[in-house]
Amino acid sequence: MKQQTLAIHAGYDKDAQGTMAVPIYQTTAYEFRDTEHAANLFELKELGNIYTRLMNPTTDVFEKRFTALEQGAGAVGTASGMSAIFYAIANVAEVGDNIIVAKQVYGGTTTLTGHTIKRFGIETRYFNVNNPSEIEALVDDKTKIILFESITNPSIDVADFDAIVAIANKHNIITCVDNTVATPIYCNPLVIGCDVVVHSASKYTTGQGLAIGGIVIERENLVEKIKGNARYAHFNEPDESYHGLIYSNLPLPLFTLRIRLALLRDLGASPSPFNSWLYIQGLETLPLRMRQHSSSALEVATYLENHPRVKKVNYPGLKSNSNYDLAQKYFPKGQSGLLSFEVETLEEARAIADGTEIFKVVVNIGDSKSIITHPASTTHQQLSEKELIDAGIPSGLIRLSVGLEDSEDLISDLEKALS
Question: By the 8 A CB rule, do 215 and 77 touch?
Answer without folding.
Answer: yes
